[in-house]
Amino acid sequence: MLSLSNKRILLGITGGIAAYKCAELTRLFIKAGAEVRIVMTKSATEFITPLTLQALSGNRVHLDLLDPEAEAAMGHIELARWADLVLVAPATANSIARITHGEADDILTTLVLATPAPIAIAPAMNQGMWADAQTQANIAALDARGYTLIGPGSGEQACGDVGLGRLSEPEEIVTACAALFDTGALAGRHVVITGGPTREALDPVRYISNHSSGKMAYALAAEACAAGARVTLISGPVALATPDRVTRIDVVSALDMLAATLDAVDGADVFIGVAAVADYRPAHIADEKIKKSGDEIMLSLVKNPDIIAEVAKRENRPAMVVGFAAETENVVANGQSKLAAKKLDLLFANQATDTFNSDSVAITVIDAEGATELAAGNKHLVARKMLQMIAERLKLPSAH
Ligand code: C5P
After folding, report:
1. Does 76 sit in the ligand 1 pocket, CB within 6 Å?
2. In the chain, where are the structural domains located?
3. Which of 125, 323, 340, 389 has a CA between 20 and 30 Å from the CA of residue 224?
4. Which residues are known to be catalytic?
5. 3-state DSSP assignment of residue 142
6. Residue 36 in 3-state DSSP?
7. Residues 6+ apart with CB under 8 A from 131
8. Checking DSSP bridges between strand 85-91 and strand 8-13, what pairing results, if any?
9. 190-394 shares the fold of 8-178
10. Is there an atom of ligand 1 within 6 Å of 261 CB?
């Protein structure tokens, strides 16, 4: 599957007529799941406007090394570090010469020098300029340095000549860039995960909750991202940093979590319910702080919706709906009845008392076929194994 999920492409545009193709190129990168930031040389702006590219990439275009506003948003060294791939397209004969000689007199050439990311070059120029010995020597030098060359293609040129020197078609460039990355087991998939506890308000200052730390969900989110998925993490209140490249939606109560989940799962491939959702919520939330009175008070609680069961019964349910069960007794038997009752594809069960707030976990995997043990370990390592299982099952024909 062609995917650039989560990949950060820094597109450097130089001043050739083929620069107009960068509008389509940017659109295709985004369609393939990439995030695109663009830098342009001054002459590139004569061929296509920064505004067009800003609108298509959703990010401000960087034009000048010394622009204080652009530098405040993301400095050029930060931009160089941000990229997973730097692509210069179209790369004119002049820009190829300048890159070959290590010049750094504009933002594009500076970024090319500063970036630790791989660099790809898609040349576009008149066929005579391409065939010239100096250009060929420059290209050979870049090739020897490990740059990836994309094209050029052959055909009719803007100047009327026919020959080698046309910018490769945007589809070919995107395919060549995607091939530079290892495609993970979940490349191109959208994975939605709930995590952490929910808080059910009693009054403006008090709530009912549980000890879930969110660590398992956050480990799964980070690892799903590393496996190439686009990840949405719907998180109850936890004290954890959002994993890189994960879209996090913060919620408080079970009802908030349900609404955010139903919004997010449309079109998703995988839903993993890791959250320790409160089973009940107070029947009424007092408008004012509840006053101390008497030795006992009665709380009336009502049942919360079962979020994962709501997801599983949707007509367009994700291909894999995966639950967790933190049990204190009869882990396998309770897990099996939950799998059936909630119509799950897979359930990861564990001993609740061993798991909450811990960095490691021991899991029993339960599906329609039976139960197997997953070797205990750090939550990140276990998360990787879980995602591998999910990815393998995604390839099988759906049972729904
Ligand atoms: O029934 P129990 O709470 O043990 O089920 C656990 C599984 O169901 C977990 O995947 C959890 O995220 C999900 N769940 C839910 N909504 C609830 C209760 C549990 O999504 N209200």
Report:
1. no
2. 8-178, 190-394
3. 340
4. 159
5. helix
6. strand
7. 163, 164
8. parallel
9. yes
10. no
For the annotated binding site for CTP, the residues are: 279, 289, 305-308, 324, 338, 342
Residue where the block lists tokens 């909450």: 356
Ligand 1 mean position, distance from CA 277 (Å) = 6
pTM above 0.85, yes or no: no
- Residue 120 β-bridge partners: 87, 148
Rounded mean pLDDT for each run of 10 residues along the chain, 400 residues in total: 84 97 98 95 97 96 88 89 97 98 96 97 97 98 96 90 94 95 89 98 97 95 94 98 96 98 97 97 96 92 98 96 89 91 95 68 90 88 95 80
Q: How many angstroms separate the alpha carbon of residue 309 from the centre of ligand 1?
A: 8
Atom of ligand 1 nearest to the CA of 326: 4
The CATH number that domain 8-178 falls under is 3.40.50.1950
217 Cβ closer than 6 Å to some ligand 1 atom: no
Contact 17, 89 (CB under 8 A): no
CATH superfamily of 190-394: CoaB-like (3.40.50.10300)
Give the annotated binding-site residues: 279, 289, 305-308, 324, 338, 342
Q: Report how far residue 391's alpha carbon sits from residue 188's, in angstroms, rounded to the nearest whole number.
A: 11
Give me the pLDDT at residue 355, please.
58
* Peptide bond before residue 152 is cis, with ω within 30 degrees of 0: yes
d(CA 109, CA 113): 6
